[in-house]
Design goal:
Layout lengths: L15 H17 L4 E5 L7 E7 L9 H14 L9 E4 L3 H12 L4 E6 L4 H9 L3 E5 L5 H12 L2 E2 L2 H8 L8 H8 L10 E5 L4 H12 L5 E7 L4 H6 L31 E5 L1 H15 L5 H19 L4 E7 L13 H6 L5 H13 L6
């Protein structure tokens, strides 16, 4: 009697030869991309504290999400979910979709981004430049359901970054962002940072870094900064993953619900950052370093500077690391546009004064 069974599938499995070539192309892209830079943020040397900015904006698609998109494609290819001609669909507020559109084009696959209607026109243009199509909806709470509907309709694959981000990346190493940070810090005055500060969109980056520092037995702590309108902060504080919120104005981070890729137990502390503080810090970065970045970088920087001020107050020495998530050119008509900021009812001035005082004295006086 034969021990081999017969299974009827909704669609035939992908051709293994095509999958092998697709994986080779994605890995070759990684080999062609040098690691991202680790910049020093200027602080007075007498403080004995170093702040580093991991510049993820230099990836081929210009953001931190390039790492995630690469991992998601490799995970889906190895799992048998993507084959030749498969339409790839993602729910994204912008940067993940830009990066996934890049990899879809690399593999000759159609790509559709389901995204909120208010996504910046610069990001929409970038997705379309990479060959993707944008499917805009008014209510951001419905993007997952709409993505699944489209995938079912065309027989495609919903990538679902918010579910698979924390498992698609190898948190033990393999040149993930955490391993890269520690290798680049190895010759610095304080090679084991006191804090690594990141925002949460999917939660995949904080999960990767939090697991890695525990796996390598480092004393580094992870601080997740969360913008207005996001559910992560309240969900973490109340230990309630069912928390919901209206959603964030800071593209790329903050979610109306606590996503399944957010691993709360590897987060040491969280900090709520007002949107006006995020934009003030984003502009402060440009004024101090000449580097224009997006709003999520401003959220990161606000949290990192607050921790530096706390260390200085307590007489601590050491290093802090945070991320430049993407470049500021994507937000010329939003976060860098004073008229747009005014229409949002945001007053940056009180937070700009906090940053100016910090730069002059090291003191942190929250409005």
């Amino acid at each position: 009697m034969s021990c081999f069974g017969v299974r009827t599938a909704k669609r035939p499995p992908p051709d293994r030869a095509w999958v092998a070539e697709a994986i080779r192309r994605v890995e070759a892209d990684a080999n062609r991309s040098a690691d991202t830079h680790l910049h020093v943020f200027p602080l007075p040397p007498e403080w004995g504290i170093e702040l580093y900015l991991k510049d993820e904006s230099v990836h081929p698609t210009g953001s931190l999400k390039h790492r995630l998109a690469r991992s998601l494609f490799l995970y889906a290819l190895a799992s048998g979910w993507i084959g030749e001609g498969t339409t790839v669909i993602e729910a994204s507020s912008g940067s993940t979709a830009v990066s996934e559109a890049y990899f879809a084009r690399l593999l000759g696959l159609p790509f559709v981004a389901v995204m909120p209607a208010w996504t910046s026109p610069e990001k929409i243009a970038l997705i379309e430049f990479q060959g993707g199509r944008c499917h805009l909806i008014d209510d951001p709470r419905g993007i997952d359901a709409e993505s699944r509907r489209l995938a079912d309709e065309c027989g495609g694959h919903f990538m679902d970054q918010f579910t698979y981000a924390e498992r698609a990346t190898d948190w033990r190493g393999n040149n993930n962002i955490a391993e890269s940070i520690f290798e680049q810090l190895s010759a610095e005055p304080h090679p084991i940072p006191r804090w690594i500060v990141v925002g949460a969109g999917t939660g995949g980056t904080s999960a990767t870094i939090g697991r890695y520092v525990r796996y390598r037995r480092y004393a580094t702590q992870v601080c997740v900064v969360d913008p207005d309108g996001s559910a992560f902060f309240r969900g973490w504080c109340e230990d309630d993953p069912s928390c919901t919120a209206e959603g964030s104005r800071i593209e790329g981070i903050g979610r109306p619900r606590v996503e399944s890729s957010f691993v709360a137990d590897v987060v040491d502390t969280m900090m709520r950052v007002p949107d006006a503080a995020s934009l003030a810090a984003m502009r402060y970065l440009a004024a101090v370093t000449g580097r224009r970045a997006g709003g999520s970088t401003g959220t990161n920087l606000w949290g990192a500077l607050a921790l530096v001020a706390r260390m200085l107050r307590d007489g601590d020495r050491g290093s802090v690391v945070t991320l430049i998530c993407d470049g500021g050119d994507r937000y010329a008509h939003t976060y860098y546009d004073d008229s747009w900021v005014a229409r949002q009812g945001l007053d940056l001035e009180p937070y700009a004064k906090v940053l100016e005082r910090f730069g002059a004295t090291g003191e942190w006086m929250t409005p």
